[in-house]
Design a protein that fits this description.
Length: 134
């Protein structure tokens, strides 16, 4: 089982419900155990500034899935919750990113781990420091 950190974000629609539903769908996978979660915080948009504020959360899981299998599952949740990819870094109903996957470093067209937001978005490190048992 690998220790994995995920980042969840939403800035369209019922943001709190999107985060809660995504967390619920993550938790029901038989090869994923949610260990800890951070509080939810409101953050200003970055990169594309002309969009609503985000709600963000970090979640620690343990999984026996391979990184691409996990990515596929998380993206299926995004699709199920109605995510539409309008513009890169633009508004979204739900966004689920893999921040870390154990101590692995992965650089492919589909997956970059550790995720760039670990360095470019200070609130991510802050949320990691506030993880609490699930």
């Amino acid at each position: 089982m690998e220790r994995v950190l995920l980042s969840l974000g939403s800035n369209l629609g019922d943001r709190e419900n999107f985060l809660a539903t995504a967390l619920e769908k993550i938790s029901v996978h038989k090869e994923i155990d949610i260990i800890q979660k951070s509080p939810i915080i409101n953050t200003d948009p970055m990169d594309v500034l002309e969009q609503p504020d985000f709600l963000n959360q970090v979640v620690e899981i343990k999984t026996s899935l391979h990184p691409v299998q996990l990515l596929d599952y998380l993206q299926s949740i995004e699709i199920e919750l109605g995510r539409i990819r309008r513009v890169p870094k633009g508004p979204r109903e739900i966004d689920i990113d893999i921040l870390t996957f154990g101590d692995q470093q992965i650089q492919t067209e589909r997956l970059s781990v550790p995720h760039h937001s670990m360095e470019s978005r200070p609130f991510v490190r802050d949320l990691i420091s506030k993880l609490e048992p699930f």
